[in-house]
Design goal:
Thiol Ester Dehydrase, Chain A, 4 helices, 23% helix
Length: 150
């Protein structure tokens, strides 16, 4: 177990994740094709060369998955019961092949579970920043988290 118990979390707690990740073309192509997304903006370099971006954009759903996935080891590994929802998902700047992303997670709300006394509900704000210090993704995520065993 590497995650944090609900009882050990506090509002304002920040996790600056040590894992940084450079996004590869393989990441983007594999994620995009496995999710059956045929969009040219993720797969067609010649088409994208003629756009304002001038190059392929990384699939934003991959960016979201990576941003949240990196947080698991520090926050919820072995202590999560369920993901309850996503809110305010935003991509304020594009991610390109070769960008290296740094992720930060903050606890922004904690409350008791009304249906499960052995758990609480935690809300996280996740952020992803590229190597230039530009915020590229953010979201709020709520989950059902285990309390410490008695």
């Amino acid at each position: 177990m590497a995650g944090v118990w609900f009882d050990d979390m506090h509002v304002g707690q920040r996790f600056e994740h040590a894992i940084r990740r450079t996004v590869t073309e393989t990441d983007n192509v594999l994620f995009t094709t496995l999710s059956h997304n045929p969009a040219a903006l993720h797969l067609d370099a010649e088409y994208m060369a003629g756009t304002d971006y001038g190059r392929i954009l990384v699939n934003s759903c991959f960016t979201l998955s990576l941003m949240v996935g990196v947080s698991v080891g520090d926050t919820t590994l072995g202590t999560a019961i369920a993901n309850l929802g996503w809110d305010e998902v935003r991509f304020p700047a594009p991610v390109f092949i070769g960008d290296t992303l740094n992720m930060v997670t903050e606890v922004i709300d904690l409350r008791d579970s009304k249906s499960r006394p052995e758990a609480g509900i935690v809300t996280f704000r996740h952020e992803a920043w590229n190597q230039h210090g530009t915020l590229v993704a953010t979201c709020k995520r709520s989950g059902l988290q285990k309390r410490k065993p008695a």
